[in-house]
């Protein structure tokens, strides 16, 4: 029995770590490698679809799912290593003539591997956000909640009345705030008797009507009507008595909006849609 070349073992482990199933492909176990990759991509896709679904609650058993996924990934790596060790001769490895195909495999895997492709899409479109710790949106969003923000929501549309948005604070764009939209560009808003009036008409949207808003700040004084400039939004916190919002610092411009908060994913007992 010939001695296994350490560089072959190293290459196998490198491939195994880089892409699920690629270690098996390198060793000639192409079908097994393809099955491992398919399981990997399916598991990642299913997990993200579950997490990002706007109405499905996230339960604690997702931790068990994640644990089983990590065990599977470890198994695939160990399997590649043991398969390499069991080889009796180096001739069973890919020959020099097959080097071009080896170089082509990582390119294909890079384009279609679930880790990279899905993570890229997720980063561009949906992000878990912990904005500035605050109680201003209680009880809808409580301090310590982890929630998702849809960054694609307003690419072709504008925020609606009642939407809970995440935005860069106009006075310090490094900070992210979360508030509810109560007036849009061109509308005149007045806080009267705890209610919101737009263009002298009472807003009856439940998310806004069911909250008592206090007359505070320079732009929220009793009897004062504020006209929102075009391309801007007037935002308030649901916990009006403890919210630092448009009543104090003014409006949020379109370009400062990150997206719409739509789902709490942690704590598990509070998981659900943001309304």
Chain-averaged pLDDT: 83
What general form does the structure show?
Answer: elongated
Contiguous low-pLDDT stretches (5 residues minimum) are: 89-104
Bin the helical content: 25-40%
Structure description:
It is a single chain. This protein has 275 residues and is of the alpha+beta class. It has 2 domains: 6-125, no CATH class; 130-273, Umud Fragment, subunit A (Ribbon), CATH 2.10.109. It is 36% helix and 22% strand. It contains 8 helices and 12 strands. The protein has helices spanning 6-18, 22-26, 30-52, 62-86, 99-112, 114-125, 206-209, 246-249, and strands spanning 126-129, 146-150, 164-169, 172-184, 188-192, 195-198, 201-202, 225-227, 232-236, 252-253, 257-266, 272-273. The strands form 2 sheets. Strands 1, 2, 3, 4, 9, 10, 11 and 12 form an 8-stranded antiparallel β-sheet that branches. Strands 7-6-5-8 form a 4-stranded antiparallel β-sheet, with no helix packed on it. Strand 6 (195-198) and strand 7 (201-202) form a beta hairpin. Helix 1 runs antiparallel to helix 4. The longest helix has 25 residues, at 62-86. The radius of gyration is 27 Å and the shape is elongated. The chain starts with 5 loop residues before the first helix and ends with a strand.
């Amino acid at each position: 029995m010939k001695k296994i070349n350490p560089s072959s073992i190293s290459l196998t482990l490198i491939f195994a770590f880089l892409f699920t199933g690629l270690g098996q492909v390198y060793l000639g176990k192409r079908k097994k490698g393809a099955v491992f990759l398919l399981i990997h991509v399916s598991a990642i896709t299913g997990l993200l679809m579950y997490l990002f679904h706007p109405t499905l609650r996230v339960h604690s058993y997702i931790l068990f799912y994640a644990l089983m996924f990590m065990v599977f990934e470890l198994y695939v790596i160990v399997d590649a290593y043991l398969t390499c060790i069991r080889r009796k001769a180096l001739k069973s490895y890919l020959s020099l003539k097959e080097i071009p195909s080896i170089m082509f495999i990582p390119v294909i895997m890079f384009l279609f591997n679930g880790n990279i492709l899905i993570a890229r899409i997720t980063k561009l479109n949906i992000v878990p956000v912990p904005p500035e710790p605050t109680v201003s949106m209680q009880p809808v969003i409580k301090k310590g909640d982890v929630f998702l923000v849809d960054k694609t929501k307003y690419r072709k549309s504008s925020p609606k009345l009642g939407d809970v948005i995440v935005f860069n604070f106009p006075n310090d764009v490094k900070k992210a705030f979360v508030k509810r939209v109560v007036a849009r560009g061109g509308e005149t808003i007045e806080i009267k008797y705890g209610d919101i009036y737009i263009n002298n008409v009472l807003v009856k949207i439940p998310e806004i009507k069911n909250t008592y808003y206090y007359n505070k700040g320079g732009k929220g004084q009793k009897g004062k009507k504020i006209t929102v400039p075009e391309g801007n939004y007037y935002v308030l916190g649901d916990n009006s008595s403890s919210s630092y919002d448009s009543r104090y610092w003014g409006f949020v411009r379109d370009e400062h909006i990150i997206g719409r908060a739509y789902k709490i994913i942690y704590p598990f007992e509070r998981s659900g849609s943001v309304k």
